[in-house]
Amino acid sequence: MNTKEYIELEDKYGAKNYKPLDVVLTEGKGVWVWDVEGKKYLDCLSAYSALNQGHCHPHIVEAMLEQAQKLALTSRAFRNDKLGLFYKKLVDLTGYERVLPMNSGAEAVESAIKIARKWAYVTKGVPKYEAEIIVAAGNFHGRTVTIVSFSTEDFYREAFGPFTPGFKIVTYGNIEEMKAAITPNTAAVMLEPIQGENGVIIPPDGYLKAVAELCKENNVLFIADEIQTGLCRTGKWFAAQHEGVRPDVTIIGKALSGGMYPISAVLADDPVLGLFLPGEHGSTFGGSPLAAAVAVAALEVLDEEHLAERANELGNYFMSKLREIDAPMVKEIRGRGLLIGVELYPEAGGARRYCEMLQEAGILAKETHDHVIRFAPPLIIEKETLDWAIEIIADVLKR
Length: 399
Ligand SMILES: *Cc1c(COP(=O)(O)O)cnc(C)c1O
Fold this sequence. Notes:
Oligomer: single chain
Bound molecules: pyridoxal-5'-phosphate
CATH topology of the largest domain: Aspartate Aminotransferase, domain 2
Number of strands: 15
């Protein structure tokens, strides 16, 4: 079958909730992917940062194959000999006391909302069912009904009400507004340390720290959604660490499996995550031996290959090189580590066009919103490969 036939098949039988670039991939290794016609591309999206370790990392593949042949799933009705090791690995690496394993990012966000509400009722003493969670405009936390309830993207909500109550929306980056939004019923503030889907929006310096302090003063939980920014992408294990912040709850996903399998987790200390009682929350696949073995291997790669340091060094290099490009259509280049957004002026006619030109030239990137191209290659990328990419990007941006 050829590209056109694969696309026809998808378009004919699939739900139509995506509009992908028309490239049909069949193989991936490290930072490279190949389409069904044999053309090779540099992956500069990394599945929205799920592939920080690169495609099919041999260490993760090995762990996956070994575990798949031994024991894949027990359900949490029984214990397994991999789950505890996964917990221990995450606790040792992150310094949190407890881990709740889930599958998708959205599920982990839902889980964090549930535990924050329970904490508000049981520990803080908020009157039953009056707990509020403050979120930021421009957020992206996933696609469930509850999560789209507090999206500010009309299109994500438009057709899907009625919505879940209990959320307040404030302007991202504005600490005064946040202050004003807090009431005695506030259970938590939930933020992305950098808004990835909103176009790689970095809050003003000191914002996360001020939010953390505000939360502390008001006995409010600070929940950081680090599903995209966490696990080394921005040059540290977690993006909140750039401001020396340790949120009460951190949500991770994506790179937790290196792209091998959907694995997410909620991290927090015992006074919060210790509140779930048996039966109050669960997941058939969450914490399976297969997931646990894959996650341990994925974390080992991040740690042993020093991918946070790499992201930091190469990100700074990449950004400085991008800034040298003299392209009149570029409005701003921003980022942290290897999470970089190139914002174009509206006159450029949209980022999608540029992504298609990049694709033609052998680089896969995806527009986020209309005018931002996101560059987020796997963190294992070599400097030479970046140099190669920068020349192509420069050429395309100048068009
Ligand atoms: C991707 C993402 C999610 C949702 O994760 P899924 O695995 O797609 O459910 C939530 N929050 C952030 C910040 C994300 O980038």
